[in-house]
Amino acid sequence: xxxxxxxxxxxxxxxxxxxxxxxxxxxxxxxxxxxxxxxxxxxxxxxxxxxxxxxxxxxxxxxxxxxxxxxxxxxxxxxxxxxxxxxxxxxxxxxxxxxxxxxxxxxxxxxxxxxxxxxxxxxxxxxxxxxxxxxxxxxxxxxxxxxxxxxxxxxxxxxxxxxxxxxxxxxxxxxxxxxxxxxxxxxxxxxxxxxxxxxxxxxxxxxxxxxxxxxxxxxxxxxxxxxxxxxxxxxxxxxxxxxxxxxxxxxxxxxxxxxxxxxxxxxxxxxxxxxxxxxxxxxxxxxxxxxxxxxxxxxxxxxxxxxxxxxxxxxxxxxxxxxxxxxxxxxxxxxxxxxxxxxxxxxxxxxxxxxxxxxxxxxxxxxxxxxxxxxxxxxxxxxxxxxxxxxxxxxxxxxxxxxxxxxxxxxxxxxxxxxxxxxxxxxxxxxxxxxxxxxxxxxxxxxxxxxxxxxxxxxxxxxxxxxxxxxxxxxxxxxxxxxxxxxxxxxxxxxxxxxxxxxxxxxxxxxxxxxxxxxxxxxxxxxxxxxxxxxxxxxxxxxxxxxxxxxxxxxxxxxxxxxxxxxxxxxxxxxxxxxxxxxxxxxxxxxxxxxxxxxxxxxxxxx
Length: 607
Fold this sequence. Notes:
Elements: H1 3-40, E1 50-55, H2 59-68, E2 76-77, E3 80-81, H3 83-101, E4 110-117, E5 122-129, E6 135-144, H4 151-158, H5 170-186, E7 193-201, E8 207-215, E9 221-228, H6 235-239, H7 252-264, E10 268-275, E11 284-293, E12 297-306, E13 310-322, E14 327-336, E15 339-349, E16 357-368, E17 372-386, E18 391-406, E19 409-427, E20 436-446, E21 456-469, E22 473-486, E23 529-541, E24 545-557, E25 566-577, E26 580-589, E27 598-603
Parallel strand pairs: 1-5, 6-8, 9-11
Antiparallel strand pairs: 2-3, 4-5, 7-8, 10-11, 12-13, 13-14, 14-15, 15-16, 16-17, 17-18, 18-19, 19-20, 20-21, 21-22, 22-23, 23-24, 24-25, 25-26, 26-27
Helix pairs in contact: 2-3, 4-5
């Protein structure tokens, strides 16, 4: 290496070695100064809380002002608040507050805003003097066009919630305006539109005029319906799910009901019902139904427990498209501690109505309770017809052979039993109802002229009601009753036609079917009549739980003179899952010899 270059390198290394300790000391000193400055420097404006206080107005108007004055996110970052931004927001708060008051009729409000700072809190004080509310000096609402004479539209016009002299409330105006337009469209006037919709505030800001004019346009009807994606089902069977016919007045709600009909049939995995482009020349709306078939045959095992029947195992088989005609074959095997049986049913749907069908059912059953032992072989032919939303009527004839032991009686009965049933079911939610009702009526009877071993007429009635209460409470009531008119002695009646009380669905606090008239040996043998009822108050907890208290009363009896009502009370815990409710009840009998707690467990909603 060149001697000159070597000398230069050694000089540079010596210089760097002297500089590094000096640089290290400078950096250390600078860090110490910065750290000291960080602790000694005055802090940025900080506030652990910024509170908006509104005074001078109450109720919904005050809450609306608070919402309009909610602090934007950029005003606060961590624990610090930008003072300049906050002061700018305070200047804007006056106009914001006035705007928030206008929907409640206050157009002359005076608003003052100030900042008040304390050690822990910074308050934005908003003082409101609302002034006199604007009142309506004139309200003109009209409906013109082909639908101008529609009774249901005229009723909305006549009951428009804002009248002359009322305070101008924008929310009421918008809700009534939307309801009128929605009703017109629901009646088939799809081109309905407001030719004039205005609120004119007078210069004095103390009175206002509403002008609202709806032009309905022409009325549309359902056009042709194309059903796609279910080639294995007959077209006539699919069309029974439609809740409308070609040429009937178009309605979006009827499209929704059609969608539910297909979905609830359990025959289709996916269902999409859509309205096509309306033809203004013919005023018809074509409909397209797109389906994807679900598996035709299903086999579903299940296990469960109920205090009335004990542990149970079920196996359910269904063929939903027998003979490729949409007919159904179903069977269910159920094995429980006290109840075993097999049910096989064949359902032939009505070609006109999804709620109507003809059913042939075979039932083999064995039941062993504390009161009786019974074996039943029965076949029933029934015709069910739908009479509107949630209303079903059924006429049936049942042939039955029953071998039984009850009390000291060991006997059998042969019956041919015709009957009529009517049921109405209207709940807002089948899994967790908050409101609704259910009731049923049944009349059945037989005679020796029909080949039966006995003669009787029975009338059964039952109902329940759910009422929503404030505070997430709901009140549930239930009542069931039955009476028997017969010419034979009670011993000629098999247990399946006698009345018993007690158990999960009857009077809680008592064992299953343990209440009723007794024979000379003290054994419960059942009665000619029955009356039970229940009142239950439930409080919803969280999203899927509920806690209730209840009182049950009832009994089976032979005559009103011998009626003794057994009573039970307790509390229940309910869990509402997507497949049904799980209900656990602890009940104590309020009369009788025993006062021990009874545990009742049921699955599903049933009053």
